[in-house]
Amino acid sequence: MEDRSPMLSLGAVPTETTTIVQVETAANEEKEVILHRQNGDVIAWLNACQHYRHIPIDKGEGATMRNGEFVCQNHGAYFEADSGHCTFGPCEGAYLDSVDVAVEDGDVYLTDENYDFVGTGPLETDETDLTSTSNVEF
Ligand code: FES
Asked: What does UniProt give as the signal peptide span (predicted)?
């Protein structure tokens, strides 16, 4: 990990939903990561459903959760928050893409060598591009 600055404080990571941070790959591709706090630890996944990977689990206002699982709002896939395993829905059996983070002294650090931290909050999106934020139900 190049950047030893914390992404955010542990207290800023919700237990009932998720918050978004932005990361960048070595190919300068920006991605969103969702963070969720559970039992004093933080779990992080790429903000991408495994049914249609351009669809975020957290659309910017925190992921919907039911009984410890994230619910994709588009077609109702359920993902265990701690394992990323899809237990129900069109991508049942798939796993969310994990991102390595660590909690130290009350702060959350990105420790995944595949990504660099960019900032907190959702990526800026083109509001005319409905593919990334669509709530279309099928
Ligand atoms: S895009 Fe998430 S369940 Fe279809």
From this structure: none
- Nearest protein CA to atom 3 of ligand 1, as residue: 75
Neighbour count for residue 89 (Cβ, 10 Å): 19
What CA–CA distance (Å, rounded) separates 33 from 9?
15
Check pLDDT > 50 for residue 25.
Answer: yes
- Would you say the CB of residue 71 lies under 6 angstroms from ligand 1? no
57-72 pLDDT tens trace: 999 999 999 999 999 9
Q: Does the global pTM surpass 0.85?
A: yes
Ligand 1 atom nearest to 50, measured from its CA: 2
What is the atom index within ligand 1 of the atom nearest the CA of 75? 3
Which superfamily does CATH assign the domain made up of 5-119 to? Answer: Rieske [2Fe-2S] iron-sulphur domain (2.102.10.10)
